[in-house]
Structure formats: structure tokens, C-alpha cells
Amino acid sequence: MNLGWWWRLFAGALAGFLFFHGFAATETAPNYSFMYDATSASTLSYYDYIIVGGGTAGCPLAATLSQNATVLLLERGGSPYGNPNITKMASFGAALSDLSQSSPSQRFISEDGVINARARVLGGGSCINAGFYTRASDEYIKQAGWDGRLVKESYQWMEKSVAFEPSLGQWQSAVRDGLLEAGVMPSNGFTYDHIYGTKVGGTIFDQQGNRHTAADLLEYANPSGLTVFLHASVHKILFAIKGKRRPKAHGVVFRDTTGAKHKAYLKQGSKNEIIVSAGALGSPQLLMLSGVGPAQHLKSHDITVVLDHPLVGQGMSDNPMNAVFIPSPLPVEVSLIQVVGITHFGSYIEAASGENFAGGASSSPAVEYMNNLDETTFRGGFILEKVMGPISTGHLELRTRNPNDNPSVTFNYFKDPQDLQRCVQGIQTIEKIIESKAFFRFRYEFLSWPILLNMTANAPLNLLPKHYNPSMPLEVFCKDTVMTIWHYHGGCQVGKVVDLDYKVLGVDALRVIDGSTFNDSPGTNPQATVHGCEDIE
Length: 537
Fold this sequence. Notes:
By secondary structure, the protein is of the alpha/beta class. Helices cover about 25% and strands about 20% of the residues. It has helices at about 5-20, 60-65, 95, 140-145, 150-160, 170-180, 280-290, 295-300, 365-370, 415-435, 450-455, 475-480, 525-530, 535, and strands at about 35, 45, 50, 70-75, 105-110, 115-120, 130-135, 185-190, 195-200, 200-205, 225-230, 235-240, 250-255, 260-265, 275, 290-295, 305-310, 315, 320-325, 340, 345-355, 380-385, 395, 410, 485, 510.
């Protein structure tokens, strides 16, 4: 067998799946009478609450607050509904490969050399992620200081609308059974709960392959209490300082697609607030652009310092992900993340499969391979491991004063040796799955484990220099092949930037509620917990 041919199919499949993991949004657009393009916004307006960011936290938060108050939700992207690039699970690949200004995804590359993406669409990351739905562990909830009963009620509220039990095909079933053979016990069946062992988790794709996003939760809003502006780029938060004991947030400045400036202010009221839910990159970035952040860094960008807050942008983390592609002699179903092995050593084992990994890919280090490959070339799947936590942290800084530009972010993958050891143990578990009786018929005997690792190590997965060969330890493999699974967090962490009520320390009437406040990523996938932030508080 020509191993060069196997390498070409592998490189194309791996790049197509892992670089362009964009998915589907619910196909039929709801009739949201409160949703407008920002060009229709008045120059000046007043609300009880102003929410910056219509993502996985902002949408349910807006729906909840609108029941008893007037709420403005500002989203820099467009609507997910009716967009052919993000309509069906079967057409995944188009969203994250779309590098245009109107794309629902905005690509960025961390200073570590790992290609990444941030959402730019109503519904946020729930419009472009792998769709896996799972709750945080009881221990995580306890450590966060949340009310366990309220958290459970919040999860159940979301699960009525956006979570489903997936139909397991043969390939995913083989991974599940292989995990059990590998000792990731016990078998926990289908559950949303975070439990040690092997389980089938939820998905935000229904049985027809339609994605259900955080934007769908706006159906619970009070239409007379909510205004949503799309393509509304918030440039800064406005603070009242004169005569105040400390700065008080009282408005925002946003621009529409024509560049026209709009101002929205809080109405008079002791409970009225501005809530930043712009994500782990967007929230610390906006605080800095508004004058809240490390004073010297702000001054270097000619930003007037409202409050010297040195920990804004610190504690940035991204859970490192490493994967192995296994070509299959048999056809396999198209599947995203369905099965997960939750290990005691701190690695989560997941898998995805299918023939159309490269669907919609338009730009990639491996696109030259993909353009010349038949669909059957992509037969196979990936088994991946994600490091929990992680312990390693980095930081975020401004590049420019334009909120539409990506900030500079460094995650310092594997800086802490425990993260690296967890990766090694995760890769060793993947080997056990591939060598299991349950998985045997989905792999070629002549493709040994060292060959599979070498194929992965030589794929264009990131922008890092390559060192690995089969004679080297798995630590080198982990460092060389590190990727993202888009679970980055931090930058506005609890106890450092915000208090236990998520109020920004040192200023009034300003909160941050999103993944930027997390010290660790909750569960195997954070989206369920970010969705639930609005009721947890």
C-alpha cells in the first residue's frame, strides 16, 4: 500500500475537520419582532440593562431580564438563521473556513502558533461549535459557589429547547466500547451529567441535523422588553466619574456597518447595569478599550485610564487538544462529538467521524491535498483527547484600539508539566481504544500505532515547528500537534477582575458574565454552563 497516498488523505481530512469545524443553525428563522440591524438604531436611547454580546451567555441573559425590565442586546455579528453556510450539520465546514468580514466566525492565531476562532454571530459559539452538550460536575458547581438547585433548574430550562440525545452509529459505538475495554469505567449510558467513566452526551443537533443555538432561547423573551441590534460593534463603555466615589458605568458607544455612531445609556435606577458577555477575548478587550485594565498598557495605546486594573486580560487558558486520525476500511457515519470518556487522570477522550470533513474548506495549510481528493478518501475518524483545566495560563493584550481587530493572546500550552502528563496519558488511552477488539474492524492492520502517530505529527495542524518522530517520547508529540477545541477562557476571572456576583471590582453598575470569568473550563464542554449563567446568578 502506498503510504504517501494515506498521508494525503490524512492531511486533507484532518485539516478539513479540525480547522473548519463550523456547523448548522436552525434553518427556519423565528419571527423575532425585537431584532433589527443596527443601522435602524436611534442616535440616543435609554434602557434598564445593556448587554454587550449576543452569544451563549448574552442571549439567555437577555431573555431572562426582559421579563421585568427594558433590555438592549448588542451583537457585532448577524443572524444565524437562513445562512446556508451554517444551516445543517451535514454541511459543516463552511462557517469556519469563511474568512470574509460577514463570516459568523473570526479567525485568530494565538502567539503560541495555534489557529483558533471566535464567534461573530447571534448565538455565539453555539453556532459554530461541535454541538456537544454536557453539564459541569457537582464539584465544579460547588467550587464556583453556585446554588446547586438553581444550576440544575437552569440546565433543565435549556435542555427543553436546545439539547437532544444523539443516535449512535457503528463507529461511535466502537469508540464507546473501546473506551470501556481501555478501562475508562463504568459505562454510564446516555446522560447530561459529568460522571467519571464512559458516557454518551447530549447534542444541540436534532434528529434532522438542525442546530439549535443560544439564539433560539430568545423565544422566551418578553418582546416588549427586549431590543436586539445586529451588526452593532461596541467601541467603549462610558463611565460617570465626576462627583462619584468610584467610576460608574452608565452607557456604551456602538457603531453600525456604515460607521455611524450610536449611544445607549442606562435609565435611572439603582439596579440598572451594563453586562459584558462578549466572550473570553471580547470581554477583557472591551474593558481595556474602555479604560479599565493595566494602566501602562492602556497608556501605550493612548487610552485614558478610568481604573488601573492589572489583572484584566490575565489568566487566559485554552484546553489543549490532540487528535489521532484513523483511516477506516469500512464506511463510517458522519458524527460529531457524541461519546466521551471522563478519566480520573484529567483527560477527556472524544471522537468524530465521517466522509465530509473537508466540506466547505477554502483556506488551510492542507487545502492543496484536499482539492485533489475523492470524498471516499475521507473515510475514517478522529479520536481526540482534551486536557481538563488546564493549569497553564497566559495573557491577552490589545493590538489596536479597533474592537473589530483581534487582540493578541498567549495561552502557554503545556507550560505546566501536569498538563503535559495528562496529554500523554490521554494519547496512551487512544492507543488502547484503537488496539481494542471493539474498534478492530475500523482500522487497517498495516497502519500500526507508530505510523498513525507519525501521520498526525507531520500534518499541518498548527504553525509550530515539527520535531516528532516515532523514536521520541509522547511529550514531544503533544507539544508538536497541539490544537484548540475552542474552550478558551479567562481574562476577567472571579476574585481577580470580578467579585462572586460577577461585578467588576472597583467600578459600579458593570458586570461580566461569560466564559472570561472562568478559572477552569466546566465539564467536557462549557457551552451548557455558559448558557446557564443568566440564571445561576
